[in-house]
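Entry
Fold in token form

___
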Amino acid sequence: MALKDLIPPTPTPAAERPQGISCEKYLRSEGRRCAHYLASGACALATEFMCVEWLKVNGPDAQRLPNPERPERLPRRP
């Protein structure tokens, strides 16, 4: 077993996070997504159920909270 497998990675400091990411446990991976991100917005951490950033964009309060990264949707036709 390698030493890197025994030492958990430290979260990315706030100064190094991409703009708009507020999760304190965010761990930078190859892309913009967190290394803990799982399919459908879940989080791989045992202390979190859903990804904080995913909930900001897609959660139940997403329609009520202004988010500059999310384009405004037109109301559905009846």
